[in-house]
Write a structure and sequence with these properties.
Distance between the termini: 49 Å
Number of strands: 2
Order of helices and strands: EEHH
Number of helices: 2
Strand order of the largest sheet: 1-2
Amino acid sequence: MEGGTGNVVSGAPLGAPKLDFADALKSSLDQVSAAQSASQEMGKKFAMGDDSVNLSDMMISMQKASISFQTTIQVRNKLVSAYHDIMNMQI
């Protein structure tokens, strides 16, 4: 039996698919959009008097959508800041 980690290169197992940054970003944005859409739909159902939607579920859904949106904004701000830092570096 080998004593090393023969299956692992740089912390990632061999054969694991590489995650593209653009794909990860798009997936994250799609999840935020889906959370906002679900929250809006739940709010509409509650406003129309649908008995299957209660106030606490609607409020939790709205808060989850808000938190995910705020997190996305903060990540975007960090990316823009890093981009500006890189662009202002002297070579």
